Structures are given as C-alpha cells and as structure tokens.
Amino acid sequence: MKSNSNIHPVYKSRVKSLEETLTHIAGVPVEITIRAIDHYTFTFDGRNDKAMSKLQAFFLGKLNGCGYDQECNMSYAYYDA
C-alpha cells in the first residue's frame, strides 16, 4: 500500500481488509490504490484473465478500464463507485 501511505489509519485497515477479500476472490494478491474519493484502481502482477474475470463478476461488471500493461507486467482495473 505504498501509494496509500498518506491515508488515515482507520482507512488503511479497511483497505487492507478489502485487499485481502479481493485477493481471496481473484486467487492472486490484489493491491488497491485510492485515486480520489470513490475512485479506485485494483492491480495484480502478471496477466491473469481468470483473476480479472473473477473481480469483474464480484463487482457485477462495473470495473472499467481493465487491462494489462506489458511494460510493468501488471493487470489493472478501475472502479468508480
């Protein structure tokens, strides 16, 4: 959670809890970056279409901007609540 280091400790624990939940759902370690109020980015290492599909199903298809960055070897998805 390096990018979330300036958030309040209460929210850090909530983010960590949600990361653990999403990791369990996706089957790969998922990190959350808070871009703004109600705007989040979920990332995980490598390309894993099955993990992305599981996250997309969990969020009822509301993830947008899903993709894979070959230079970084990371998959990402944006969620705007």
Can you describe this structure?
The chain has about 80 residues and is of the alpha+beta class. It has one domain (about 1-80). It has 2 helices and 4 strands, in the order H-E-E-H-E-E. Strands 1-2-4-3 form a 4-stranded antiparallel β-sheet, with helices on one face. Strand 3 and strand 4 form a beta hairpin. The chain starts with 8 loop residues before the first helix and ends with a strand.
Pattern of helices and strands = HEEHEE
Please report the number of helical segments.
Answer: 2
Q: Low-confidence runs (pLDDT<50, min 5 residues)?
A: none
Beta content: 25-35%
Q: Sheet bearing the most strands, described?
A: 4 strands, antiparallel
Q: What is the tally of beta strands?
A: 4
Mean pLDDT: 92
Global Rg = 12 Å
Proportion of residues in helical segments: 25-40%
What is the 3D shape? globular
Question: How are strands sequenced across the largest beta sheet?
Answer: 1-2-4-3
The helix-and-strand class reads: alpha+beta
Distance between the termini: 20 Å
Number of structurally distinct domains = 1
